Amino acid sequence: IFFQNPGKFTLQGTNTYILGTEAPYVLLDAAEGRAEYPGTLSSALDILSAPASTDLPEVSDIIISHWHFDHIGGWQCIPRPTRKQLFRSSSPVIRVLHTPGHTIDSISLEIVDDRALYTADSVLGQGTTVFEDLGLYLESLNKMLKYSEEDPNSCQTLYPGHGPVVKNGRELISTYIKHRLEREEQILEVLHRKPNEGDNWTTWTIVKVIYASYPENLWLPAARGIELHLVKLEKENLVKRLGGEGVETGWKLVSRTPSPSL
């Protein structure tokens, strides 16, 4: 179900998915909770088969991928089962993968029969995503990639939380990892040079070098991603924090050894 809540981080809107062959169904995520959502969900359910018994709800379970409001807000809009309703689901087998990084509680769901993976916001249908912890995020991407390589028939299709369905799942996950490792190498390369301004490199002066060819209005948002890269490198003892706050935090190169590649 494509929900119309476009934005900077939601792309065209938040995707939610109905799983099952007949009612009661399982709902993956619950969108943002705007007034239009119950009608959007109801219209989608009307296209599908109704419960065989009035004792069964249309939706028996909701699986939430992570805590962000655009994925949980709509759960209150979904009709509650009555006390006498039975609970049964026609959902296919779902395997849960803990994939933190985008958020600490992020999960992905393998829909086994469909050879597909619901990636929520860990891998989007287009563009790249934001993350809270880059180290955990890269571990999760590698976990997804390794999982798909162990069974070539799995995870061929990705169902993202935003953007279109992805048919070349493994290739896109590999691209995400490669992009992050390339950005990390760029940061290490900059820190290896003599600072262009002042005595030490700062988050902001690193951004100015790496994003020199981009419009300046993108630099501040980019600084958050650079900061998270630096925090990861600091944990790995590859860089040292020299003090300062925010984008003026200073950094020094300790070791040039980058993270392992694919």
What does this structure look like?
By secondary structure, this protein is α+β, with helices and mostly antiparallel strands. It has two domains: 17-177, 4-Layer Sandwich (Metallo-beta-lactamase, Chain A), CATH 3.60.15.10; 183-253, Winged helix-like DNA-binding domain superfamily/Winged helix DNA-binding domain (Arc Repressor Mutant, subunit A, Orthogonal Bundle). Helix content is 31%, strand content 16%. It contains six helices and ten strands; from the N terminus they run E-E-H-E-H-E-E-E-H-E-H-E-H-H-E-E. It has helices spanning 37-47, 69-72, 134-150, 169-192, 203-210, 219-235, and strands spanning 17-19, 25-28, 59-63, 94-98, 107-111, 116-120, 157-160, 201-202, 239-243, 250-253. Strands 4-5-6-7 form a four-stranded mixed sheet, with no helix packed on it. A three-stranded mixed sheet has the order 1-2-3, with no helix packed on it. Strands 8-10-9 form a three-stranded antiparallel sheet. Strand 1 and strand 2 form a beta hairpin. Helix 3 runs antiparallel to helix 4 and helix 5 packs across helix 6 (219-235). It is elongated, with a radius of gyration of 22 Å. The two termini are 34 Å apart. The mean pLDDT is 86.
Q: What attributes characterize this protein structure?
A:
262 residues; 3-stranded mixed beta sheet; 4-stranded mixed beta sheet; 6 helices; Metallo-beta-lactamase, Chain A; Arc Repressor Mutant, subunit A; alpha+beta
